[in-house]
Amino acid sequence: ADADLADTYLEVIPLPELTFRFGQSETPFGILETIGRFRMPSLSRGMISELMSDRTGFGGRRQGGSMKLKLKDWPLKPELELGVYGDFSSDLGIDAAGRLRLKPTKGLSVDLAWYHRLDATVERTHGNAVEVGALWDRGMVFAMVDVWLAYSRLFRKDNLLPTDNGLSLSLRALFALRFALDEDLSFEPYVGGAILDPQLKAGSDLGF
Fold this sequence. Notes:
Blueprint: E1 8-15, E2 18-26, H1 47-55, E3 61-70, E4 79-85, E5 95-102, E6 108-117, E7 127-138, E8 141-155, E9 163-177, E10 179-180, E11 186-187, E12 190-195
Antiparallel strand pairs: 1-2, 2-3, 3-4, 4-5, 5-6, 6-7, 7-8, 8-9, 9-12, 10-11
């Protein structure tokens, strides 16, 4: 049977604050998309993630190289991550991504992220997406809210004709409470949803 490798990469750490990564891994785009599934209260990341990352190619796992700078001793503990990605077997085009993460207090992360797609990693035309998000993950509470603004030269939607010069604005939120039953077991009821731009012609599946 064939098996797809999720993350395969080499890391070089010349300084404690600086990390270079080469190979296949998650791009630094999407505050919920870059959270491991074991930390998430829901099984799904929602329809926005499916539309933007899976169908239109913003973010996700890609082959390429990235650089992360973490300044833990600075105010707000900024983290800057930049990367370039491409399907090197088919063309020389590249995708690019960047994220600035601030941590005003323990448990709180605030992200400003950007993704530029140049028809490199997926067979779609160029586009740009910007995301602003905030995540609280500490103690009993998990709370996330983010806003996506995306432009694509060509939006391809299932069973619909492609839309030229698509521009969409979407909002997503997820909230959960953790109740520890013992050291290895917890119960996490959650509620979540999304407001999607009508141009995406889809509903949210975060649920509750």
